[in-house]
Amino acid sequence: MPDRPRRGPRLAFRGWRARRPFWGGLLLALGGGEILVTEKASLKVVLHIGMQGLAGYLLPGLMVLLGLLILFNPSQRLFYSLTGVLLSLGTWLTSNLGGFFLGLLLGVTGSCLAFGWLPDQGPRVGRRARRKQARAAADTAAVEREQGVERAA
Prior knowledge:
mainly alpha
């Protein structure tokens, strides 16, 4: 029997998601997937096939791979996200203008989110809470000064 109570699958997923740049990896993978889908469009829709078609499939495939690597190996997120930005921008030339801009934007946005993610960061404190903490600290300091003056006298 484990010492702690069993968590549900939803709470387990939320805990897993909180320990990695989830949205960045997901958006990068979705961007690559969208570009791969536009590669299969009819020739009337396709604007630019690219370098003999190989790079048109290689770059978005690598984008999907990097998105999954960001999700499952977040310790290397900086390398994966920088490579993801470069691949996303490269799809502009190789894959129907980056999947008609949508895949390109998803890939760049996801890579930027993954790059900016910081592990073990505490929740942000709002402006009102910071002011309240500053007032409390100032009040405490004022009370301590008054007590120090009274003791000295």
